[in-house]
Amino acid sequence: TLPSKVRIVEVGPRDGLQNERNFVPTRDKIRLIDMLTNTGLETIEVTSFISPKWVPQLADAKEVFTSIQKKPGVGYPVLVPNLKGLEAAVEAGAEEIAIFAAASETFSRKNLNCSIEESLSRFRQVTEEAKRHHLSIRGYVSCVAGCPFEGSIDTEQVVRVTCGLFEMGCYEVSLGDTIGVGTPGDFHRILQALQPHVSMNALAVHCHDTRGTALANILTALQYQVHVVDASVAGLGGCPFAPGATGNVATEDVIYMLRGMGIDVGPIDLSALIAVGQETCQLLGKNNNSKVAVASQAS
Ligand code: HMG
Ligand code: MG
User: Fold this and answer.
1) What percentage of the chain exceeds 70 in pLDDT?
2) Where in the numbering of this chain does the Pyruvate carboxyltransferase domain appear (predicted)?
3) Which residues sit with their C-beta closer than 6 Å to ligand 1?
């Protein structure tokens, strides 16, 4: 049996915009997030309190976070890589943070400038401090199905890092197929390995759709009772430190598929979301990567 309800975590404003070369004006980011809130989404990852030297696109994290219209009941998590980021997120009024580790040693160094072990001990400090501030903490594990530098990744490493994030207090850990190399075979293998160690109820999947396997991977995860899915409006997304990665699975496409299967995804207005995606693609000068959005324009 499949879960009857799925929570969608919209990551477009963060994962989608972080990879844009040209700076997206702060007011456009705020407008995008406000429009996403109005579609009825329940969780919207807003931005990252990372080093602006590493990701100049999100240098306006504080202004974006403090200027958006927050709707009661909607979660607005932000990425935090270290104590400095946590301090800034708390100052801006964040109630939920996301920390991000990797199952690949090389990707960890490229993305966080430290080893996996160092990142986990850094995140242990971050989570201790975050708990003092009563923040909710979400975790990411990148490169679960493969790494742009190392190729295939040991499943045991995925299990180890995932367990580490739960141990330090993450309420949920999202499994990132950062470069979209995974297939349902990989997700079966990874989820089977995780099953004895963690609650499937507390996992999410974060599928980049580089090779067109994201929806199949999500369906595989649902078969393991995973009921949280990360997605990005218009299929925006990518990671500046993961060469070859393209966008996340499109939120529109996930909603279309899940609703078609009779799964409750909450009160999201799909036509409104398609319109937000279209407007955002026009703003960024890119093609819409949501198949559902493209089909709706054609019909
Ligand atoms: P570092 O260079 O080792 O850090 O970077 P540092 O502590 O040596 O500091 C260097 C400078 O950055 C200093 O400034 C710090 O103050 C400043 P300076 O003294 O030179 O003027 N700094 C900061 N400024 C603002 N906010 C901060 C902060 N921290 C340091 N929080 C660091 C280490 C972790 C900071 C860096 O590597 C970094 O920012 N990395 C973030 C990379 C990133 O955002 N990647 C994309 C998100 S992850 C992702 O996309 C994957 C995901 O989607 C899941 C998936 O798809 O798999 C989540
Ligand atoms: Mg990502």
Assistant:
1) 100
2) 6-274
3) 15, 18, 48-51, 53-55, 79, 81-82, 84-85, 88, 100, 111-113, 140, 142, 176, 178, 206, 208, 239, 241
Q: What amino acid is encoded at 109 in this protein?
A: R
Query: Which of the residues are catalytic?
Result: 239
Q: Which of 91, 244, 228, 253 minimizes the C-alpha distance to 170? A: 228
Measured in degrees and rounded to the nearest 5, phi and psi for residue 193 equal -70, -35
pLDDT above 80: residue 225: yes
Task: Tell me which H or E stretch contains 102.
Answer: strand 96-102
pLDDT in tens, 77-107: 999 999 999 999 999 999 999 999 999 999 9
Q: Are 204 and 226 in contact (CB under 8 A)?
A: yes
Ligand 1, pocket-test mutation among 50, 57, 115, 210, most atoms within 8 A of CB: 50
Return all residues near 81 (Cβ < 8 A) that are at least 6 apart.
48, 49, 50, 51, 99, 100, 112, 122
- Tell me the one-letter amino acid at 287: N
For 81, other C-beta atoms within 10 Å of its C-beta total 23
Query: Can you tell me the mean pLDDT for 105-115?
Result: 98
Q: How remote is the CA of residue 237 from the centroid of ligand 2, in Å?
A: 7
pLDDT 10s digits, 156-170: 999 999 999 999 999
Q: Judge whether 178 and 142 are in contact, CB under 8 Å.
A: yes
> To which H or E segment does residue 101 belong?
strand 96-102
CB 222 within 8 A of CB 3: yes
Structure tokens at 43: 């969780």
Q: Report how far residue 79's alpha carbon sits from residue 98's, in angstroms, rounded to the nearest whole number.
A: 5
Determine the distance separating the centroid of ligand 1 and the alpha carbon of 111, expressed in angstroms.
8
